[in-house]
Write a structure and sequence with these properties.
The structure holds two protein chains of two kinds.
Chain A: H1 7-29, H2 32-60, H3 68-90, H4 96-113, H5 127-162, H6 175-208, H7 216-237, H8 242-261
Helix pairs in contact in A: 1-2, 1-4, 2-3, 3-4, 3-5, 5-6, 5-8, 6-7, 7-8
Chain B: E1 2-8, H1 14-20, H2 27-35, E2 40-47, E3 51-58, H3 63-75, H4 79-83, E4 87-90, H5 92-102, H6 114-129, H7 134-154, H8 163-175, E5 182-186, H9 190-201, E6 206-210, H10 214-223, E7 227-229, H11 234-240, E8 243-246, H12 257-266, E9 272-276, E10 293-297, H13 298-365, H14 370-396, H15 402-415
Parallel strand pairs in B: 5-6, 5-8, 6-7, 8-9, 9-10
Antiparallel strand pairs in B: 1-3, 1-4, 2-3
Helix pairs in contact in B: 5-7, 5-13, 6-7, 7-13, 8-9, 8-13, 11-12, 13-14
The chains are: A mainly alpha, B alpha/beta.
Chain lengths: 265, 419
């Protein structure tokens, strides 16, 4: 029996799918053991995912972030790695209900679009361009984690205000922890994302003698940067409002998705 | 066999319980005295404010009378009087009873966590005194393991069932750790005092106390290693404090919406938890609409506590299932352990018959090749194993009633001619 190079991708996808299903089912069955089973499956998927990313690097000789499937796969990988680290440190059970489906969605896009092992255009073989791709991808992962925790903070805030416990009450950490983690992830993600955009501008200036090409992905990235910048400013200035945070986060996520889909253009 | 005698909050009034209760300093001597009673092979004593229980292992059920006499003497009561309040549990029911007690399923407040520690203390103390035999030692280990499993798997003791604890639980849900927080206690109402005490136990940084009578404020502040402040400086302290407990007798609001709004602006939207335990209310309900302010009155907290109590009852059903499974497992292990000597003897007896008959058979057959010899040996072994299968199964799966088990053992020994 021979193995195809794409086997780890589909294995990761299968593990993520079953793991996400187990985690979401645990939300209704209130069974912690089911959620742990989901986590084990997600970790198994993460191992396969890591092998898949290694396969791309070995085959193409460049980091796995140069086209849409590679970028979405790498964002999914980074998001899960950060989530796993936070879970180990804080045991935040509720984050999985947002993070697992997001990881699954991103890897599904990667698998559906195809274009594995794309050969890199010689023009793109530049350290600045690679830094741009790596930093924006990691930055986006940080921002998405920040959004997930911001959403948890919003849910917790509404439960405390309305004095009604929702299904997630027991699984969401304190409002303080959600806000702190959300803020830290946003601050770190935004800083890295900003550096990534600056690298992109520099590369564009060197290659095309212009600062920015205003195509869909650039406009999406810029709008996301502005929205997350405003959100971060709210956290820093103390002008935090739960509802406004959710709206800004939603806008930022849509803009990021537009930018990701725009990678193909 | 295992026997447990005891009384608890359901079977005996407090004046009977207190006569039998055993203090920590008396526990070693009393446990030794129980172990020294005629017929007692192993002993442990559990004494809490709600129950006193003597757990013993023995070969002789008559020991029950001796223990009742001993308890009656300790309580300064007649045997007949004490027997009205006592429950006596035997054999497998002791295991079930202890598992339930340690898991908090038999407590006045279902799932309360202290009882687990008290059961641990009882067995650890008995172990150190050397009053446990191997059966009680196994029972102790398993009881503690099951109690831990029930708490971990069901989370039965996780939620507060009293108003002050519900306030602490909510504070944790808002701030996470309460270390380093500042608390402002307004007034000297009993419930407010109790809540402040629980928060103080969570190692908050500072408790400020404001009361119309400054002397009373100073007195309370001393209790919490806090600071008494003037009642009219409340607005100023709102900016510094993270948790405000209002418990005054004032017939009007003492904390206004505008004050809280200003405080939140100064606090750069850091969350503020306001607990209004007064009737009539002391904190303007409009405060609840402010971003970053979480206002709970006494009814809200009572609702949280009631909800938690209901949830504990639901979790208790899950816990009962775990206990039942664990009792069955423990019982099976004990019965199997008990049957081991008879099973070994049985196997040796049949093996010696097999070996002797095989020898005779081979002599009668004369010279045969190795393969034929192996086939005959295999046949005899299989035959013996098949014959032993059901008796061994019965011995391992016997009733947990020692007399029934003994009767089965005697019958099997008789049938197979064991000594």
């Amino acid at each position: 029996m021979s193995f195809l190079p794409t086997d780890p991708l589909y294995l990761a996808l299968a593990c993520y799918a079953v793991g996400t299903l187990a985690a979401l089912t645990s939300l209704f069955s209130r069974d912690v053991r089911l959620q742990r089973a989901g986590l084990v499956l997600m970790i198994a998927g993460f191992v396969a995912h890591t092998i898949w990313i290694g396969t791309i690097c070995t085959r193409t000789g460049h980091p796995p972030i140069t086209n849409l499937p590679e970028a979405t796969s790498f964002i999914a990988w980074t998001v899960f790695a950060v989530e796993l680290a936070l879970w180990i440190r804080y045991r935040v059970y509720a984050a999985v209900f947002f993070v697992y489906p997001l990881v699954l969605l991103l890897l599904t896009i990667s698998a559906a679009v195809g274009e594995h092992f794309a050969v890199l255009d010689p023009q793109l073989r530049s350290n600045v361009f690679m830094a741009h791709l790596l930093l924006t991808t990691v930055g986006v992962a940080g921002l998405l984690i920040g959004v997930a925790f911001g959403l948890l903070a919003f849910i917790q805030d509404r439960s405390l205000k309305s004095k009604q416990r929702g299904r997630l009450w027991d699984w969401i950490p304190s409002l303080g922890v959600c806000k702190t983690l959300g803020y830290r992830a946003l601050a770190i993600g935004f800083s890295i994302y900003t550096l990534g955009i600056l690298c992109g501008v520099l590369w564009s200036y060197r290659t095309n003698a212009e600062l920015m090409d205003l195509r869909v992905k650039q406009v999406g990235a810029l709008i996301a940067w502005i929205l997350f910048g405003v959100l971060l400013q709210q956290y820093i200035s103390g002008a935090y409002r739960a509802r406004r945070t959710v709206l800004l986060s939603a806008g930022g996520v849509v803009a990021i998705l537009v930018a990701i889909v725009g990678i193909r253009g | 066999m295992l026997i447990l005698l005891g009384l608890n909050h359901r079977t005996a009034p407090v004046d009977v319980r207190e006569r039998l209760s055993i203090s920590d300093s008396q526990l070693p001597a009393t446990t030794r005295a129980l172990r020294a009673l005629a017929g007692v092979e192993g002993a442990a004593l559990l004494s809490t404010c709600n129950r006193v229980e003597a757990i013993v292992s023995t070969q002789d059920e008559d020991v029950i009378g001796t223990i009742v006499e001993w308890l009656a003497e300790r309580a300064g009561a007649s045997r007949a009087e004490l027997e009205k309040y006592l429950y006596i549990v035997r054999h497998g029911d002791v295991v079930r009873h202890l598992f339930r007690v340690a898991a908090g399923l038999d407590s006045m407040i279902v799932g309360e966590p202290q009882i687990g520690g008290q059961v641990r203390q009882a067995f650890v103390s008995a172990q150190e005194l050397g009053t446990l035999d191997s059966l009680l030692a196994q029972l102790g280990d398993n009881t503690l393991r099951v109690a831990k499993k029930v708490r971990t798997d069901t989370g039965i003791g996780e939620h507060a069932v009293s108003v002050p604890y519900a306030a602490v639980e909510l504070a944790k849900k808002i701030f996470g750790s309460l270390r380093g927080l500042h608390v402002l206690l307004l007034g000297a109402g009993e419930m407010g005092e109790l809540t402040a005490e629980h928060l103080h136990a969570q190692q908050v940084r500072q408790v400020f106390v404001a009361n119309r009578s400054h002397d009373r404020a100073r007195e309370l502040a001393r209790r919490f290693d806090g600071e008494a402040v003037q009642f009219d400086s409340v607005a100023e302290h709102l900016t510094r404090c993270d948790i405000v407990i209002a418990s005054t007798a004032a017939p009007h609001y003492v904390v206004a919406r505008e004050q809280v709004e200003r405080a939140l602006a100064m606090r750069r939207q850091q969350n503020l938890f306001l607990i209004d335990l007064s009737v009539p209310r002391n904190i303007d309900p409009a405060v609840a609409r402010l971003e970053g302010a979480y206002l709970y009155n006494v009814d809200d907290l009572q609702q949280v506590a009631d909800g938690n109590r209901e949830r504990r009852q639901q979790k208790a059903q899950e816990a009962e299932q775990i206990v039942q499974r664990e009792v069955d497992n423990f019982r099976r292990r004990l019965v199997a352990q008990d049957a081991v000597p008879t099973i070994l003897e049985l196997q040796q007896r049949l093996e010696s018959i097999r070996a002797a008959e095989l020898e005779k058979c081979l002599r009668r057959l004369g010279p045969i090749d190795a393969e034929q010899r192996r086939a005959i040996e295999q046949f005899s072994s299989q035959l013996v194993n098949k014959i032993l299968h059901y008796p061994i199964l019965e011995l391992k799966d016997a009733s947990d009633e020692p007399q029934e088990r003994e009767s089965l053992r005697r019958t099997i020994r008789k049938i197979f001619g064991l000594r």
